[in-house]
Description:
With 146 residues, the protein is mainly α. It contains 4 helices and no strands. Helix 3 packs antiparallel against helix 4 (117-145).
Amino acid sequence: MYWLLALMTCSLVGMIAMGIYLEMRPFHQAQTWFKSTVSVNLLTFVVAQIVLLLLGIQEVMAEPTASTAVREISVGMGLAMIGVGIPTAFATIGAGIAVGPVGAASLAVIAEKPEVFGRTLVYLGLAEGIAIYGLVVSILLLGKLG
């Protein structure tokens, strides 16, 4: 299976090298060989990915079951764990929405008045605090699950 990972790595390195080459030397009509080279690299990568997936599934299915006791997670516990992550997700999205305009405005103000740098950091900190609150709520909810 390692030979397959090496093949995929070589294919990816080839595609990256081709992209760098074409970035440094822009496409000319005389260079028609790049289309076939990129196609071969991409085809090699896709085929290797499919074979890796099939071999990986075969190895996992053939593996003997572990003799250690594994704690089963019920559907309700799984839904509860998803519910624990939701406050962090929404708080992070909200913080991202808040930091965007505040950061842009603070950069504009700093460009005109550099002495208000500290005040703009306070505003950015308040906007980023929203994400911290969501993380704290998720940690408290996770403590209730155990």
